[in-house]
Amino acid sequence: MSHPQPLLCVGSLAFDDLEMPSGTFENVVGGAATYSSLAASLLTSRVNLVGVVGEDFDPATLSKLSSRGVDLEGVEHAKGKTFRWRGRYAADLMTRETLDTQLNVFADFQPKIPASYKRTPYVLLGNIHPSLQTDVVGQVDKPKLVAADTMNFWISGQPGPLAEMLKKIDLLIINDEEARELSGIQNLTKAARDILKRGPSRLIIKRGEFGALLFDAGGAFFVPAYPLEEVRDPTGAGDSFAGGFMGYVARTDDASPAGLRRAMFYASALGSFCVEDIGTRRLLEVDSRALAERIASFVRLVDYGGGASLQLG
Ligand code: AMP
Fold it and tell me: Is 236 touching ligand 1 by the criterion CB < 6 Å?
């Protein structure tokens, strides 16, 4: 048996204002690193969090994170207000528009990796300036697997630093739109081949309710999204997916192709929990028993009888 390893999560901690078809929810605690670290904390016993909060951030939220095994030594407390994001979702919750981004203390964020985190073997770089992501990789001592997220804003606005960042990471986790924009190729399989030539040896393309694809040297692997009857808030689903994925890899200390395929199920399970309620509410409720039940449902979802049963006789 392998020993669970720690995971380093770097990224935003935020207040979100969410305009949903079901109503407006303001001052919801969010941020990519909040979602990722909460998701990962269900799987691995230690998550090292690096981010910044302002004077207005609620200490009770930080204690909730800490009670879940998230180490907060790397969370900087800065003078001023916490990062704030406002988004409006379409009626089908499939698309959203950013109405406002107030960087506040996040504007001067320079991630500093505490000495006690430098040997963390697994690293998840949330969506921040690609130069900062590259800088974090330089501060960590020989990690086993470094994963990063990014977004259209950096793909179009910072192509040079983004290209440098891609050379430093092992796994890029993006959505289909971002994969198309980054590669300039519409077909996702071709786009994946192109992106894999730019640095990372593995790529995950998330497709929301249509599941996610993992590309590596062994080819493509697909995991569906868990079919839910009600989705309340998709905010943070991608970050929870990434946190669930890296949390499982850290727990099993296994970054082999087979290990990463198994991690895809945990990623999709954590993404599915996240969307069941507003903000981090559902992620805070879920325990290892609920997770085990969802994984069992997932196994049933894709169980076609196994082996050669799909072959024509
Ligand atoms: P997701 O729905 O997975 O894309 O993540 C949503 C989270 O990302 C929200 O909680 C926001 O606070 C955070 N977020 C939105 N825009 C940015 C940004 N420019 N940089 C960092 N985090 C952001």
Answer: yes
Write down all domains in the chain, each with its CATH number in brackets: 7-302 (3.40.1190.20)
Q: Is the CB of 278 under 6 A from ligand 1?
A: no
| Ligand 1, atom 12, residue with closest C-alpha | 31
C-beta atoms surrounding 273 within 10 Å: 23
- Say how many Å lie between the CA of residue 56 and the centre of ligand 1: 18
Is any atom of ligand 1 closer than 6 Å to the C-beta of 238? Answer: yes
* Residue 154, pLDDT score: 94
Q: Higher confidence at residue 88 or residue 2?
A: 88
Which residue, by CA, sits nearest to atom 15 of ligand 1?
A: 85
Question: Among all chains, which residue has been given the structure tokens 């995950």?
Answer: 204
DSSP string, 81-128: PPEEEEEEE-TTSS-EEEEEEE-GGGGG------GGGTT-SEEEE-SS
* Residue 298 CB less than 6 A away from ligand 1: no
Q: Report which secondary-structure segment, H or E, holds 203.
A: strand 202-206
Burial of 289 (0-12, 13-18, 19+ CB in 10 A): exposed
Segment 274-278 mean pLDDT: 97
Nearest to 270 by CA among 301, 299, 294: 294
Alpha carbon separation from 137 to 30, 107, 167, 190, 233 (Å, rounded): 24, 20, 11, 28, 32
Global pTM value: 0.96
